[in-house]
Write a structure and sequence with these properties.
Layout lengths: L64 H6 L13 E6 L9 E6 L5 E7 L9 H12 L3 E4 L6 H7 L7 H16 L8 E9 L1 H14 L9 E5 L5 H14 L6 H8 L15 H26 L14 H8 L3 H16 L5 H6 L3 H4 L7 E6 L7 H10 L5 E4 L11 H8 L4
Parallel strand pairs: 3-4, 3-5, 5-6, 6-7, 7-8
Antiparallel strand pairs: 1-2, 2-4
Helix pairs in contact: 2-14, 4-5, 6-8, 7-8, 8-9
């Protein structure tokens, strides 16, 4: 039974040291408030006006962070398109083969919005389609492609083992530079913006950092990161913890039967799942893609960390890949590969590429972030620290919404459409 059917999210976070002391997981029912929360919520029964940013009132209502996360896709529009087209990009620096992207054109010169998806998302996924609709409606050309973490992307790029966000950011920046030089893009793109979701949000921040340092010719003028994990290290620790402590309390069939195609209950009704059950489903969903990532990277880059495939059957090898955690993958594949290839001197440096406290201070002022206070991929104390250390106006902390649960809200649509404001 494939649990991905009901949890096709774009998370973030492959990773964490085995010796990491895991942060305490608080109940998502009553998230710890932050000292300064950036959101607008009108008082019931009044005519309060929207804030100066002219966004509508925050309209997402699910309070439980886990429930918001596991029902995220059910709140998306999932539109159908007939006017997007595939485009092959050749000669990308660092890529061995041509790469495929999807583009929705406006038919006239306009800004280009690039959607950077999460860990397991593809360029034609419901998540990608939703953001295409948001951005194309706002008057932008829209470009999407598969997550660099996926085997399909790596098979074409051959850029190296997945999970090195800095290397992936440099590669994606090169892809976009190549696209902008193409005959179709010349004269059609007036400026470039990035919308990153989850892992894609961390990727967008790293691209902005490269641009600010003059390490890429790409010059975005707007970057919006939605639900980027505050720390990939912590997010991975939490996923590994959920898997070890909760996953084996249920079979995949039980998780699928309870949560497949589940629609959120009306406001005021109790959540029909326990927190443990939702953590189990979340952990199982993310691990479904990981085994393919582990198997592919070991084979493609000849790491020989898995048993050799049999002459006619590699199931034994795949069974071994399925036992790997996010932590083990990053420590024993990603770091081992990149420490030898160059660019990563020590393991902590690899973690820092996915640590917002390290990345955000080096990003230009046009970079903006949106994170929900009860996102189950974050430690509330780390989020509060990031909030206090970040320039006013750069980070919006929503009162609730989980990990990407709020993406289908009217507020989020309006925020995405104001990418360059």
């Amino acid at each position: 039974m494939n649990v991905r059917v009901f949890f096709r999210f774009s998370l973030a976070a492959p990773i964490v040291l085995a010796s990491l002391i895991l942060p305490t997981v608080r109940s998502e029912e009553t998230p710890e408030p932050l000292d300064r929360v950036s959101y607008y919520q009108p008082t019931r029964g009044t005519n309060d006006s929207p804030p100066a940013d002219s966004l509508p009132p925050y309209d997402y209502t699910i309070q439980n962070g886990l429930y918001a996360t596991v029902t995220a896709l059910s709140n998306l529009e999932q539109p159908q398109f007939k006017n997007d087209e595939k485009q092959k990009l050749k000669g990308i620096p660092g890529c061995e083969k041509e790469m495929e992207v999807r583009v929705m054109w406006q038919g006239k010169p306009a800004p280009l919005a690039v959607v950077l998806l999460g860990l397991g998302s593809r360029g034609n996924s419901p998540m990608a389609r939703t953001f295409q609709a948001y951005l194309h409606e706002a008057g932008f050309h829209v470009l999407t492609f598969d997550s660099p973490f996926l085997p399909a992307f790596s098979e074409r790029s051959r850029h190296g083992v997945a999970g090195n966000v800095a290397a992936e950011a440099a590669l994606v920046a090169g892809m976009l530079e190549t696209f902008l030089k193409s005959s179709k893009a010349k004269g059609m793109v007036t400026r470039v913006g990035l919308v990153g979701v989850s892992y894609g949000g961390v990727l967008a921040l790293n691209i902005a950092q490269l641009s600010a340092a003059g390490k890429t010719a790409l010059k975005p003028t707007g970057v919006l990161a939605l639900s980027p994990p505050v720390s990939l290290k912590t997010a991975a620790a939490l996923l590994d913890k959920y898997y070890a402590e909760e996953r084996w309390n249920y079979t995949l069939a039980e998780l699928y039967g309870a949560m497949a195609n589940h629609k959120p209950v009306p406001d005021g009704q109790p959540v029909p799942f326990t927190d443990g059950q939702m953590r189990a489903g979340l952990a199982a969903a993310f691990r479904q893609d990981l085994k393919d990532v582990v198997n592919h990277n070991d084979q493609r880059y000849k790491l020989n960390l898995l048993p050799k495939a049999g002459l006619h059957d590699d199931q034994y090898r795949r069974d071994w890949a399925e036992t790997w955690t996010f932590t083990k993958f990053i420590e024993e594949m990603t770091f081992t590969y990149w420490s030898k290839k160059g660019g990563v001197a020590h393991l902590n440096q690899l973690w820092e590429f996915g640590d917002l406290a390290q990345v955000v201070p080096h990003c230009p002022d046009y970079v903006k972030l949106v994170i929900a206070a009860n996102d189950p991929m974050n430690d509330p104390e780390e989020l509060a620290k990031l909030k206090s250390d970040t320039k006013p106006g750069r980070l919006t902390v929503l009162p609730h919404g989980g990990h990407m649960g709020y993406l289908g809200s009217k507020w989020c649509k309006a925020r995405v459409q104001k990418l360059f404001e």
